[in-house]
Specification:
0% strand; globular; mainly alpha; 81% helix; 192 residues
């Protein structure tokens, strides 16, 4: 089933309404959809490199609005669904501790999920249920998703199809290494 969904998503890149489909895929991927918008964005940019940054902007806007939906889902349904389940499992106290730690990290969880292969939808929902300040969530989402989509767009615009394999197989690892180095730098500065 996932393969069929992937194939359908790829096929939409050739349609005249592809930008709308990209917006929708980016939107739902940020809260529930299992396929990242990159699989649609990459062939669209390869087909129309002069529109690379417009395509990335559509992806960014859809993803951030979808993230807002994810945040709302987490904020709205935690009390009705999440809290009772955790209480029945005897984990309510641990969840309060987790929420505090998550929010103490501030923008880091959103930044990491927004630019690495970690599922962004998990963090959007978690940000809502832990009560991460919405402004922190929104600004960090714009920065993280903007970095992710515009770096991909810039690479495809500059290098075209030859860079596609690198993006699809190794860019997630590069983003993850970047975040690790950035975090290590902040930790080193803190202890110096």
């Amino acid at each position: 089933m996932l393969k069929n969904l992937y194939d359908w998503t790829i096929a939409q890149a050739e349609k005249p309404y592809a930008l709308w489909v990209l917006f929708c895929v980016a939107f739902v991927e940020s809260s529930v959809f299992p396929i990242p918008p990159d699989v649609l964005m990459i062939p669209m940019i390869l087909a129309r490199p002069t529109k690379a940054f417009s395509i990335a902007m559509v992806c960014l806007v859809g993803s951030v609005f979808g993230g807002i939906l994810g945040y709302w889902i987490g904020a709205s349904f935690y009390d009705q669904l999440g809290a009772p389940i955790l209480q029945s499992l005897g984990k309510a106290g641990q969840m309060a501790e987790f929420n505090e730690r998550f929010n103490d990290l501030g923008f880091w969880p959103v930044l990491v999920a927004g630019i690495t292969p970690f599922p962004y939808k998990v963090i959007t929902i978690m940000s809502g249920w832990t009560g991460l300040p919405f402004s922190t969530f929104l600004v960090t989402s714009i920065i993280a998703r903007g970095l992710r989509f515009f770096i991909v767009a810039a690479l495809l615009w500059r290098f075209g199809a030859p860079i596609r394999d690198f993006i699809e197989k190794r860019l997630g690892l590069m983003f993850t290494l970047f975040v690790a180095i950035l975090a290590a730098g902040f930790i080193a500065v803190k202890f110096l």
